[in-house]
């Protein structure tokens, strides 16, 4: 149902900040997938995403681990399609903006770089063809070193017109 296309990674450290620590070790990772079953419901798409090998990523520098047991700060077994809640593009962008500007205003070059994947993952409202989902806080579902992320935000968009699924993780470590 999902075929991995490519990944994008944006590291805040690669931009000039007034304060040398302004980047706060933040980054954004987007995984792009082709949806080969555009008639599938969102729940089925989320199930396929969670089961996909590319989902086995602790997002702590090691990349995808085909037999991995972690996803972000959580044990993989605790993340299911039901772990996602529907959201709006506006709500998702509010979360991401608050996270990205938490310490300092963004350097202009970073703001421009962030706009591209955010607009493609979470198109400006209203998203006529896409649905958006937010991975809710799983609380006690965290793994042994899951607290390495101060904040961890994950959004999935499903666009049936373009047959695209995007998995966007914004975090710090």
From TrEMBL:
It comes from the Bacteria. Residues 122-142 are annotated as: Disordered. This is Uncharacterized protein. It comes from Actinosynnema mirum (strain ATCC 29888 / DSM 43827 / JCM 3225 / NBRC 14064 / NCIMB 13271 / NRRL B-12336 / IMRU 3971 / 101).
């Amino acid at each position: 149902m999902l075929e991995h296309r490519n990944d994008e990674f944006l590291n805040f450290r690669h931009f000039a900040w007034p304060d040398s620590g302004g980047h706060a070790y933040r980054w954004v990772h987007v995984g792009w997938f082709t949806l080969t079953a555009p008639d599938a419901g969102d729940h089925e798409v989320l199930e396929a995403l969670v089961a996909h090998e590319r989902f086995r990523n602790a997002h702590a520098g090691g990349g995808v681990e085909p037999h991995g047991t972690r996803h972000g700060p959580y044990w993989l077994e605790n993340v299911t399609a039901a772990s996602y809640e529907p959201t709006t593009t506006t709500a998702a962008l509010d979360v991401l903006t608050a996270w990205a500007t938490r310490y300092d205003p963004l350097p202009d070059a970073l703001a421009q770089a962030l706009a591209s994947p955010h607009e493609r993952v979470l198109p400006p409202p209203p998203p006529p063809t896409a649905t958006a989902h937010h991975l809710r806080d799983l609380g006690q579902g965290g793994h042994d070193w899951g607290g390495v992320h101060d904040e961890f935000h994950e959004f999935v968009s499903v666009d049936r017109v373009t047959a695209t699924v995007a998995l966007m993780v914004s975090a710090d470590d």
